[in-house]
UniProtKB/TrEMBL annotation:
<keyword id="KW-0813">Transport</keyword>
<comment type="similarity">
    <text>Belongs to the inorganic phosphate transporter (PiT) (TC 2.A.20) family.</text>
</comment>
<dbReference type="InterPro" id="IPR001204">
    <property type="entry name" value="Phos_transporter"/>
</dbReference>
<keyword id="KW-0472">Membrane</keyword>
<keyword id="KW-1133">Transmembrane helix</keyword>
<dbReference type="Pfam" id="PF01384">
    <property type="entry name" value="PHO4"/>
</dbReference>
<protein>
    <recommendedName>
        <fullName>Phosphate transporter</fullName>
    </recommendedName>
</protein>
<dbReference type="GO" id="GO:0035435">
    <property type="term" value="P:phosphate ion transmembrane transport"/>
</dbReference>
<keyword id="KW-0592">Phosphate transport</keyword>
<dbReference type="GO" id="GO:0005315">
    <property type="term" value="F:phosphate transmembrane transporter activity"/>
</dbReference>
<dbReference type="GO" id="GO:0016020">
    <property type="term" value="C:membrane"/>
</dbReference>
<keyword id="KW-0812">Transmembrane</keyword>
Length: 767
């Protein structure tokens, strides 16, 4: 029996390693997003600074794991078996849940995950024990700390609201002081700003990052508490003078602030959030050693866990090993970059590819904000408006190459996050590092007018999605852990073993899928290069390449889907038709994103070229959209016909249709090849044969209509669907012929003849 539980404890530590890996991937956004977003240094340097902070925070932590030992449940009323069920369920749920969020690129709170998992597991066993208690003396309050859940939930609401308002206000004031061209306004303000920033970060490290370090004795903490005003004043004067001198020596003070802020938040994260990753396994290890040493033959169901009521210090070897694992995760995790990317993209200054779509709530918020903005324009004097606008002139923004925002905003993000966490700690509010840092970044980006009318609805949707994910984390963590604990409790070792296998399989499967997804995303970095480049000729070349890939991909998709849909109708394959419908809807959403990217690129090329190419760009883009509509108009009647089990199409119709389809596909392949190779020598021949194909299809339509006059009612429905296929096939030919013309004149330096322009009157029908 002891051997089995020893195996469970070992597995808990194995899961702790996974938890550290995925947890650091998730929480890397807390302390790295500002430095990465502002390109304060290369990514390797930022990782090194953060890694030093993480390792120092982990090693200097005293490892007080009380929340996992008795912060949620009352161990005196739980047996060794029940505690092990709860702890194993918590670790299984936590690792899988965090990995899912990291894969989706959404930052979440490891603190909330662990607390609500412990609540879920404890709650279900508490209910079972109360139901089975014959004395009727046990209550829910005897077995779990319900106040902890309420304090965490209140902390969520408070941290979100306070961080957003504070971030918006402080960044607005900072921008009024420094403007976007901040290098012109640093004569004396930089010393004061640097003094406030470094003093705040230093105090943050003392109070939040090092308060639990072994060398911080109670006497030291008491002295800091009693002399806070003196300490802060002395630091402010010293650092103000130091920052001003460094500025005179032409040192970029903002970079020092951002790197110091990255280090301090990483230090605090590792020192305080380590319990979220190894607290549960250590509680399990402590419970196991207590049972082995003191059980004296008492069964696992009767040995109560009174020992967990005491506080325990984590052995130094565990802290050191945890620090190494966290540094390794930080340096190698690709999912960490994915989570950072979400936060940086939502806060970036310039427009670009939007990760999120639009939502009704976001549209309402933007509409109300625009109304408020219009009201303020009427109230604020024109002279003051002009002065404010001059401070927010984004044309003067100073961005490092490829940066999402400038150093002013990065510094405010880090300093303000540290200050808010200090305030929360002082007021004993359970503020989440994740919540504070993310929401501050959203508030500062709003103040910087980074959310234009073109992007605001997408940014707000993204922010709401992340915030919604936090609340979902709490609910899902509670529910899943409760269910897993319930099953383990009744199935004993069998259930435990099954869930261990499930957790391992899900983690392996998730990492394999993520690797495939990452490879697919790495294949298309043209847009990033296009938005980062300052050379307009290079931007034009990249835009042409991007447009070429869009057109060829949609021709390929249209050809493949056309064959699948018509085959599905001929062979009565409902599954294939449903897949084609879903794929077409997905491609419509993808086309919107690609079109927006290309429009952003079109705005960055020389204006004379943009005016010349505009018509052909929009004709090509509209043709892609029309092809998808055409496919949908073909697919819907076919799917409905097959789904209703109506009579199939006649063999005569199939025989006459297949050669037409073959010719259409052949010409589409030639079109794709011409666009792909940027070689339009055969374009006139393709267009001529396409025109001939349209005439052939027209003849088939007339024959079919004549045939329908003589057909019996049994085949009338199939004939109607077939007639629709012929009609839409004819439209499809017209569409890709326009697409070929559009690509020809967009990609090259061709000047279209008047006859070509007149032919555009034969445009695809508007839907």
């Amino acid at each position: 029996m002891e051997t089995i539980y020893l195996g469970i404890v070992i597995f808990l530590f194995m899961l702790a390693v996974f938890d550290l890996l995925v947890g650091v991937s998730n929480d890397a956004v807390n302390f790295m997003n500002s430095a990465v977003g502002a390109k304060v240094a290369n990514f390797k340097t930022i990782v090194i600074v953060a890694a030093i902070g993480v390792f120092a925070g982990a090693v200097l932590s005293n490892g007080m794991m009380d929340i996992a030992r008795h912060g949620i449940f009352q161990p005196v009323n739980f047996s060794f078996y029940e505690i092990m069920c709860i702890l194993l369920a918590v670790m299984v749920t936590d690792v899988v849940l965090l990995d899912v969020f990291n894969t989706l690129g959404l930052p979440t709170s490891t603190t909330v995950s662990m607390v609500f998992e412990l609540l879920g597991g404890t709650f279900i066993l508490a209910i079972l024990k109360i139901v089975g208690d014959e004395t009727g003396l046990l209550t829910l309050g005897d077995m779990m700390n319900t106040e902890k859940a309420l304090s965490v939930i209140m902390g969520i609401f408070l941290s979100v609201a306070i961080a957003f308002i504070a971030g918006t206000f402080v960044q607005y004031i900072s921008r009024l002081i420094f403007s976007f061209n901040y290098k012109k306004n640093l004569s004396w303000t930089i010393g004061i700003f640097g003094g406030i920033a470094v003093t705040s970060l230093s105090y943050f490290m003392l109070i939040k990052g090092l308060k639990s370090a072994p060398f911080m004795t109670p006497e030291s903490l008491a002295w800091i508490s009693e002399n806070t005003t003196l300490l802060v004043t002395g630091c402010f004067i010293t650092f103000t003078l130091l920052m001003q001198i460094l500025h005179w020596c032409r040192v970029n003070v903002f970079k020092i602030i951002v790197l110091l802020g990255t280090f301090s938040l990483a230090l605090a994260f590792a020192g305080n959030d380590l319990v979220n990753f190894i607290g549960v396994p250590l509680a399990g290890f402590s419970a196991y050693t207590d049972y082995v040493a003191n059980s004296n033959g008492v069964s696992i169901h009767d040995f109560m866990m009174t020992s967990l009521m005491s506080s325990a210090k984590t052995p130094a070897i565990f802290l050191f090993a945890s620090g190494l694992v966290m540094v390794y995760a930080l340096a190698t995790s690709k999912k960490a970059k994915n989570v950072i990317k979400t936060s940086v993209d939502l806060a970036r200054q310039e427009e670009g590819d939007e990760m999120f779509g639009s939502s009704a709530l976001a549209r309402t918020i933007v509409r109300r904000a625009n109304n408020i903005n219009d009201f303020l324009k009427r109230v604020i004097p024109a002279g003051m408006r002009r002065w404010i606008d001059s401070r927010f002139n984004k044309d003067e923004v100073i961005l490092e190459n490829g940066a999402a925002f400038d150093l002013i905003r990065a510094a405010v993000n880090l300093v303000l996050s540290g200050l808010l966490i200090i305030i929360g700690t002082t007021m004993k509010l359970p503020l989440s590092t994740t919540y504070v840092t993310f929401i501050v970044a959203m508030g500062t980006s709003l103040a910087d007018r980074a959310w234009s009318r073109e992007s605001a609805v997408y940014r707000i949707t993204g922010m709401l999605s992340v915030i919604g994910g936090w609340f979902i984390t709490a609910f899902v963590a509670f529910t899943i852990c409760a269910l897993v604990t319930f099953i383990m409790f009744y199935t004993s070792f069998v259930g435990m073993f099954i869930f261990i296998v499930v957790a391992v399989v899900l983690l392996v499967r998730s990492n394999i899928k993520y690797s495939k997804k990452e490879k697919a995303e790495q294949q298309d970095d043209i847009f990033k290069r296009m938005m980062a480049s300052k050379d307009k000729n290079e931007i034009l070349a990249l835009l042409r390449q991007h447009v070429k890939e869009t057109l060829t991909s949609y021709i390929t998709f249209s050809e493949d889907t056309y064959v699948k849909v018509t085959d599905g109708f001929i062979h009565e394959d409902l599954k294939s038709l449903r897949k084609a419908m879903n794929a077409t809807d997905d491609q419509k959403k993808m086309l919107k994103k690609r079109r927006r990217k290309e429009l952003l690129g079109l705005r960055r090329i020389p204006i004379t070229i943009a005016i010349e190419k505009n018509t052909w760009f929009h004709l090509g883009s509209n043709s892609c959209e029309e092809m998808l509509y055409c496919l949908k108009r073909i697919c819907e009647p076919c799917k409905e016909h097959v789904d209703n089990n109506f009579n199939p199409i006649s063999k005569d119709c199939v025989t006459e249709f297949l050669p037409v389809r073959e010719e259409l596909c052949r010409l589409m392949e030639r079109t794709r090849t011409a666009i792909e190779n940027n070689n339009y020598e055969e374009a006139d021949d393709i267009l001529a044969k396409g025109d001939a194909l349209k005439n052939s299809i027209s003849s088939l339509r007339k024959q079919m209509m004549n045939r329908m006059q003589e057909a019996d009612n049994a085949s009338l429905k199939a004939s109607m669907v077939y007639l629709n296929i012929l009609q839409e096939s004819q439209e499809l030919v017209s569409i890709w012929r326009h697409l070929l013309r559009a690509s020809r004149f967009f990609q090259g330096d061709y000047v279209p003849q008047e006859s070509v322009l007149l032919n555009l009157a034969e445009s695809p029908r508007t839907v």
